[in-house]
Design brief:
This protein is an alpha+beta fold and about 350 residues long. It is built from six helices and 14 strands.
C-alpha cells in the first residue's frame, strides 16, 4: 500500500598518521570504475577513518539559504571521522551481530506518537518518485511507502543486491545512533561535519567556487531538470558506491552529494534561536514543516536529489531539517570518534 505524504569498526585505529589505510573498495575518485565494481572483499566491512585536525573556520553562509545564516567563527577539536558514509555491508554487519531492526521495519509506536493517521504507524518509509506532472503545491515526488526500509530502499520490490558498497539509506536518527553505539563511536555534530566537509577550504565547495572542476563532476547530484529528468551525466542516477568522487583535503569522500547525513544537533531555523525569522520560506523546507512528528533533527551535505534548479544544498554550509522518526532513500550517516 502506498500513501502520499508531503514530507519529506569496529574500533578506532589510534595511529599517528593523518589517514588510515585505503579502503578496499573500487578505485576511489573514479565514478566509471565504481560503476563497474560490485561487491566487497571480506575486509571491506571495517570502517576506515581519517583524522581531522582541530581548528577554527567560518561556519554557515550569509549568501545562500536563510537557514545557513548567520555566518560566524566556530572552533572544533580534532576528531576521527569515517572516510565515507556507512555502507550497506557495514550496516548488515551491525544487524547480523545485534539482531537490530530499524524504525522503518518496526513502525512508529502509537503510544509515543498519538493522533497520527493509522497508516503512519505501519512499517515503511519515505521514497522519492519522479512525478508525471508538476504539482509544486503537493510536493508529489515524496511518498510514504509501506515496506520501504534499508534492505528495500524504494519499497518491497527493491533490494540492495550487489550494492554492498553503496551508502545505507532509509535510516532514522535512532537507527544511526544505535549503529554508532555498537561501533563505540558517535555521530558528528553540525560544526564537526561542516568543518570536515570544507576540508580546510573557504570557498563555496571544498574544491572551489563552482559545482564542477575543469568540467568534471565532483559530487553525486541531480543532473537535468528536477524532478522530471535526470541525465546521469555524472555517471549515476541514485546513490553511488562510496568513494566514486574525489576526496577532499582531509581524505574524506562524499561529504557533499550522494546522501544527506545525520548530525546530532536539534533543528533550528537559523544557527541562533535569537535570530529573527526570515519572511521567505524555501520550497524544500516545507518537507520538514509538514513532517509526521515534531522531532526535527538536522541533516547535512545534500544528496543525489539536489540540483542547481531546485535544492542547491550540495555545499558544506547547507543544512536541512528532517523528522528524526523518518528516513528516506537519500539519507544516510557516518560516525566520528573523539580521541
Amino acid at each position: 500500500m502506498k500513501v502520499f505524504a508531503p514530507w519529506a569498526l569496529i574500533s578506532v585505529l589510534l595511529a599517528c598518521s593523518t589517514v588510515h589505510a585505503e579502503p578496499a573498495y573500487s578505485p576511489l575518485g573514479d565514478v566509471a570504475a565504481c560503476k563497474q565494481y560490485s561487491g566487497l572483499p571480506p575486509s571491506g566491512v571495517a570502517i576506515e577513518q581519517a583524522w581531522v585536525p582541530g581548528g577554527s573556520f567560518i561556519m554557515g553562509s550569509n549568501t545562500h539559504y536563510p537557514e545557513e545564516s548567520k555566518a560566524r567563527k566556530a572552533t572544533v577539536d580534532g576528531f576521527w571521522i569515517d572516510r565515507h558514509e556507512v555502507t550497506n555491508a557495514q550496516f548488515h554487519a551491525f544487524v547480523t551481530a545485534t539482531g537490530y531492526k530499524t524504525l522503518a521495519e518496526r513502525g512508529l509506536d502509537p503510544a509515543a506518537f498519538p493522533g497520527l493517521p493509522p497508516e503512519m504507524y505501519r512499517p515503511g518509509s519515505t521514497v522519492f518518485e519522479m512525478p508525471r506532472q508538476l504539482d509544486v503545491a503537493n510536493l508529489q515526488w515524496w511518498h510514504f511507502v509501506e515496506g520501504a526500509d534499508w534492505q528495500h530502499p524504494t519499497g518491497p520490490g527493491s533490494s540492495i543486491d550487489n550494492m554492498d558498497n553503496h551508502p545505507v539509506v532509509q535510516i532514522a536518527y535512532e537507527d544511526a545512533q544505535a549503529y554508532a553505539r555498537w561501533a563505540h563511536r558517535g555521530l558528528p555534530n553540525e560544526a564537526q561535519f561542516e568543518y570536515a566537509a570544507k576540508g580546510g577550504s573557504s570557498t563555496t565547495f571544498p574544491w572551489g567556487k563552482t559545482l564542477q572542476l575543469n568540467g568534471k563532476d565532483m559530487a553525486n547530484t541531480w543532473t537535468g531538470v528536477f524532478p522530471f529528468q535526470n541525465t546521469a551525466s555524472d555517471g549515476v542516477v541514485a546513490t553511488a558506491p562510496v568513494g566514486c568522487f574525489p576526496e577532499n583535503a582531509f581524505h574524506l569522500y562524499d561529504m557533499v552529494g550522494n546522501v544527506w547525513e545525520w548530525v546530532t544537533d536539534d533543528w533550528t531555523p537559523y544557527h541562533s534561536l535569537e535570530e529573527q525569522p526570515h519572511p521567505d520560506i524555501d520550497l524544500e523546507d516545507s518537507l520538514a514543516t509538514q513532517a509526521r512528528t515534531t522531532l526535527l533533527g538536522t541533516i547535512k551535505g545534500g544528496s543525489f536529489l539536489c540540483s542547481p534548479s531546485y535544492c542547491k544544498r550540495y555545499r558544506p554550509s547547507a543544512r536541512h531539517a528532517q523528522d528524526r522518526t523518518m528516513g528516506t532513500n537519500h539519507i544516510g550517516f557516518r560516525t566520528v570518534a573523539i580521541p
